[in-house]
Amino acid sequence: MSFFKRLKEKITNQTDSVTQKFKDGLSKTRDSFSERVNDLVSRYRKVDEEFFEELEEILIGADVGVSTVMDLIDELKDEVKRKNIQDPQEVQAVISEKLIDIYESGEEQLAGLNMQQDSLTVVLFVGVNGVGKTTTIGKIAHKFKSEGKNVLMAAGDTFRAGAIEQLEVWGERVGVDVIKQSAGSDPAAVMYDAIQSAKARKADILLCDTAGRLQNKVNLMKELEKVKRVIEREVPGAPHEVLLVLDATTGQNALSQAKIFSEATNVTGIVLTKLDGTAKGGIVLAIRNELNLPVKFVGLGEKMDDLQPFDTEQYIYGLFANAVEDEVQNS
Ligand SMILES: Nc1nc2c(ncn2[C@@H]2O[C@H](COP(=O)(O)OP(=O)(O)O)[C@@H](O)[C@H]2O)c(=O)[nH]1
Ligand SMILES: [Mg+2]
Q1: φ, ψ (nearest 5 deg) of residue 88
Q2: If you measure from the C-alpha of residue 67 to the centroid of ligand 1, how many angstroms do you get, rounded to a whole number?
Q3: Which pLDDT tens digit goes with each residue over 181-223?
Q4: Does the C-beta of 250 come closer than 6 Å to ligand 1?
Q5: What pTM was computed for the model?
Q6: What three-state secondary structure class fits 46?
Q7: Measured from the CA of 127, which atom of ligand 1 is nearest?
Q8: Which of 92, 187, 195, 249 is the most exposed place for a label (fewest CB within 10 A)?
Q9: Ligand 1: distance of its center to the CA of 29 in Å?
């Protein structure tokens, strides 16, 4: 069976609404990327060096990342030779297959959170201002709440005006309590309070918001360290996840943010927001390949249920849906 048909079968086994969310959220990327790939494969009669050069440009244009693209092109060339592929149309399926391989290579846990079975799980969210930390926490609180978990949120962004209230609005919306102190107070003290409350209420999961001013890098990193120290001291083994939130619309800049944060703190995974707002959704692959960090969740819109656990196959389907459907229908 062809790769596209297998892909279609795999995603068909999952909930339709998930496929739809990925498809909708990736529509901008798909429109620009697919259009260019389609145009490429229809202009070329054979798969030659020039074909690969153009393909390289298209992939880099979609923010897949230069070194990832280089790896990919090398593997594509090998595969094309090995399978003796002459028809450029056939290369699309090979690209999508290789993209999945690239993403899934490596051993660490790619999806889901490191949840503790019978004790409190603490998740710390870090990232610069405006990337979507607070929104993501609200969405994740909603997700766990609807799974029947006892959820609590900590308003650790005490720096920015309105940040505490913003989290409270989410709390009301999703029916989850927020532990807070007044604006300007020490975020580490907020975390201490939040952990005591979480223990007293036997919460399953505590979601910790933080401030994100990058212009004051040294202070921010010191503050994060202090917050982390308090969490570590109060809950052995915590934080169980440190999720770095990145805004997909900032492109390669997101990668440099990731490097800065990774140096300062032990980031365990990425939440990539606003994929719906960019035509360069290839950034997922660059993050995975160049930072070696898994993308745990993707933001596909502003609504409560627009945050989805990242799924490689849904993502690749979201990028190649037109080509996949063409092939499935024409056979
Ligand atoms: N379209 C879209 N907007 C998002 C997404 N995630 C967050 N946002 C928006 O990004 C803006 C900043 O989010 P916020 O949570 O305040 O960022 P923070 O400063 O990191 O806490 C808000 O207007 C959010 O609604 C997403 O996945 N898609
Ligand atoms: Mg915020």
Answers
A1: -55, -30
A2: 29
A3: 999 999 999 999 999 999 999 999 999 999 986 656 788 788 8
A4: no
A5: 0.94
A6: coil
A7: 20
A8: 249
A9: 19
